[in-house]
Design the sequence.
């Protein structure tokens, strides 16, 4: 919220005309300062999205005109409504607002000294940013600021000048035995990575699994994963995570085929004791999970009864998420991929165990391919390594 507090007054006043030259300069400076903070923790830079900036400027103008500070617009709109109004399609989004600060440096200092706002600025999954600034000398706080963060659903809407990186290379040869393939990769460049599993056309559909382990632990912040969902909820997709200490997390489900608006989610500790659900969640909605004890958890996702085959994603976000991660579900040659996205903040060696076939499940799949990709900061995925052509 920044240093100022929210005004209770909603009396409209006359704002200074937005989009003055200083506004453009302030937008560029805020972007620069955000990326400087992200660079300190080895995160990819954000690029400036025209659509997200439109949503941010709309809200700053609204706050300045109507003399208030809130995430809710004067017309009752939420930040997600303002984003969608621009036509921007996202898998994850967030917003910071502030009022009263007179410069980009001052407002960034306020945000970085606020836990929730700092978390948005340093979220590894975000790739794009919009910035809004409005000045109204007749309003209580005069200066009104908005940041809108996003991860686009499809192709990136902007690009950044990210520095090219050295490709990651495997440190040991591929080893496949008894329906499991194991790969050990040395990831030397910090960033956001995606392990993607696909099934060749000639292979049979079925269940698959992927385990990711490393001695130093995956970085805090969380991860996202997904897979194919079989018809009628006949087979579930799952992801697991380990909490190093009691932690409140957030969960979000997506459905990429557009066939389902809701999915069922259940979380079990040690895959035995239910601590959340099963409950039906709306796709694209961030759900807060009360504090969970330290330990190992499995989150299972199912489609509704009578649903067609689809393609889901699930994000688990929060601090203290480390160590190994297991994911899995249904896969076939045509409907979609299996994947997990995870941040890396320092050079580490990561071991991948790809499970398939009859030894994994009675409906185990044929042998999938494994690809490792990296997001250089512009929303695109750059191939790093593949089990087909390592």
Sequence:
């Amino acid at each position: 919220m920044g240093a100022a507090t929210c005004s209770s007054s909603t009396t409209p006043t006359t704002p200074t005309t937005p989009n003055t030259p200083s506004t453009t300069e302030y937008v560029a400076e805020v972007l620069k300062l955000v990326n400087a903070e992200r660079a300190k923790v080895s995160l990819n830079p954000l690029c400036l999205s025209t659509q997200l900036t439109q949503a941010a400027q709309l809200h700053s103008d609204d706050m300045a005109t109507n003399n208030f500070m809130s995430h809710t617009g004067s017309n009752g709109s939420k930040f997600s409504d303002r984003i969608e109004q621009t036509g921007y399609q996202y898998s994850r989004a967030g917003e910071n607002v502030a009022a009263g600060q007179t410069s980009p440096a001052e407002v960034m200092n306020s945000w970085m000294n606020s836990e929730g706002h700092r978390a948005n600025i340093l979220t590894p999954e975000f790739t794009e940013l919009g910035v809004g600034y409005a000045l109204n000398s007749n309003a209580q706080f005069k200066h009104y600021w908005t940041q809108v963060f996003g991860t686009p659903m499809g192709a990136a809407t902007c690009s950044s000048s990210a520095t090219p990186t050295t490709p990651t290379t495997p440190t040991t040869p591929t080893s496949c035995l008894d329906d499991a393939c194991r790969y050990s990769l040395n990831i030397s460049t910090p960033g956001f990575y995606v392990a993607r599993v696909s099934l060749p056309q000639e292979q049979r559909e079925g269940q698959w699994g992927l385990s990711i382990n490393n001695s130093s632990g995956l970085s805090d912040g969380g991860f996202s994963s997904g897979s194919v969902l079989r018809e009628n909820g006949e087979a579930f997709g799952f992801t697991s995570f380990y909490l190093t200490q009691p932690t409140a997390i957030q969960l979000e489900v997506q459905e990429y085929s557009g066939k389902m608006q809701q999915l069922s989610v259940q979380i079990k500790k040690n895959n035995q004791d239910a601590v959340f659900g099963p409950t039906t969640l709306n796709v694209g909605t961030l759900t807060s999970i009360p504090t969970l004890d330290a330990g190992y958890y499995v989150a299972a996702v199912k489609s509704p009864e009578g649903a067609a085959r689809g393609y889901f994603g699930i994000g688990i976000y929060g601090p203290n998420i480390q160590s190994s991660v297991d994911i899995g579900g249904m896969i076939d040659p045509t409907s979609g991929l299996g994947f997990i996205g995870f941040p890396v903040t320092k050079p580490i060696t990561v071991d991948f165990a790809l499970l398939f076939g009859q030894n994994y499940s009675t409906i185990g799949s044929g042998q999938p391919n494994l690809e490792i990709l990296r997001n250089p900061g512009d929303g695109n995925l750059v191939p790093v390594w593949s089990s087909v052509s390592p």
User: Anything to note?
Assistant: The domain at 175-386 is CATH 2.60.120.380 (Jelly Rolls). The CA atoms of residues 212 and 273 lie 23 Å apart.
